[in-house]
Amino acid sequence: QAKNLGKNSICFFELEMQRSIDHRLHLESKMREAIKRNGFELRFQPKIDHGGKLIGAESLCRWQLPDGEWVSPADFIPIAEETGLITELGNWVFEMAMATLSEIQKHYLSGFTMAINVSPLQINQSNIVRQLLHTCTHYQIKPSDITLEITENVLMQDAKSTEEKLRRLKSHGFQISIDDFGTGYSSLAYLKHLSINELKIDRSFISDIGQDPDDDAIVETILAMSRHLNLKVVAEGVENHDQLLFLQQHSCEQFQGFYFSKPLSETELLQFVINHHKREISL
Ligand code: C2E
Ligand code: MG
Ligand code: MG
Ligand code: MG
Known about the structure:
By secondary structure, the protein is α/β, with parallel strands linked by helices. Helices cover 50% and strands 18% of the residues. It is built from eleven helices and nine strands. The chain starts with a helix and ends in a 7-residue tail after the last helix.
């Protein structure tokens, strides 16, 4: 009896596994197609400083299937990484994000900055530094106006070569930010000897601020530590005024989240810039 049941459940899992493999293969071939025929888009989420000034945006990749369905980056970025397609997709993201940045800097707001998510495989791409510098030159953008967001897990892989890449990127002026800070498997030691400018507090710590004393303590501690280490801090996922108030009271310098704006299309971002480049956003 029990044996039979066990056997059945194994079959069930195999079926599920086969389904998910099929699904991934399907997505992979769709993704190859989409890279060729412009099936990807970027959205931009504004970043606001403690005085309500618009300082820049983070670019976030979107994928729309031919049938209109949207696939989340949480689903397609891992597949792009496994298949190596991330290199091509990542280069496309650099290109598009900088094209938008250059448009904004030239016509609206010269100090505007752009944050770009970079995956581990891209950092280890041998020509990443040259590639980024080339795109900057092409769009007449200063590397210091670009923030590269990497996750802590990047630092776990091939630590020596990653360390060297980050050092070179930083020496050219690129800003290096640790995304989703506090959620990865990593040690604090890297904050000491790696070339990092900024920490981005993960939104899982922000969401229950004021309600969960543990989250209050974690966020306060990250902010205090960053101050001592001279690191900038961005709070991601700020959704309401209470969270903002807490963050302001603890000297957080930059905010991002639905409270200010959802991720915007390029046209919407330009409108947002026009609305806010002179007038500060009331906090
Ligand atoms: P992330 O870099 O941590 O981006 C923040 C995510 O939080 C975005 O999800 C954004 O839409 C969402 N978000 C922003 N504000 C709020 C808020 O107030 N509340 C809530 N609930 N969510 C908020 P998204 O766009 O689905 O991106 C998910 C992840 O996919 C990103 O996390 C990033 O790690 C990755 N990703 C996106 N674009 C790229 C890309 O071009 N390259 C790479 N390598 N990864 C990317
Ligand atoms: Mg990010
Ligand atoms: Mg993040
Ligand atoms: Mg996050």
